Amino acid sequence: MSDIRTGRPSPELLERIRRQRRHTLELIVVCAIGLVPWTILLAFTLPSGYAVRQWRTTWVGFDVLLVLAMAVTALLGWRRHRPVAVAAVATGALLVCDAWFDVSLALGTPDVWMSAGLAVCVELPLAGFLIWKVLGMLALAGWPWADRLTDGDGPDQ
What was the pLDDT predicted at 23? Predict the structure, then answer.
């Protein structure tokens, strides 16, 4: 009976969480800074046109990944599992990437209008909807900052 939880984490646990958070944020900052020169290098060295060999495999593979992400999001949502938030954000991110690549790779071709139409009418709205729903879930879960992101309809209002 000595490990009865009081509802408050120990100071050691809080310090470990703070340290892990700081290390994670430091890693992300280093990666972001490192990506700047790499992006500049690519901007100057990549050819403007490039013939690819596995075009169909790449796009079909990406769309299969997108289907799996949507299926996992739906399954977790139906089962009311909390990881649905992670799956929904990942699906939203994949939809944004799909819209970006569809439009940017179609620039200068007649297909750009279909790509832009799908991006504006389907992919980006669905991505925004998924992320908006996750923010709403965070507000319902009582995250202190989440209610500011969902038009003030959070638990503190």
Answer: 93
- DSSP conformational letter for 8: S
Q: Which helix (H) or strand (E) holds 15?
A: helix 11-45
Q: Rounded CA gap, 106 and 144, in Å?
A: 42
- Residue showing tokens 């299926």: 71
Neighbouring CB atoms inside 10 A of 114's CB total 13
* Helices 84-106, 124-140: crossing angle, 10 deg rounding: 160
Per residue in 76-123, pLDDT tens?
A: 999 999 999 999 999 999 999 999 999 999 999 999 999 999 999 999
Whole-angstrom Cα distance, residue 96 to residue 128?
Answer: 9
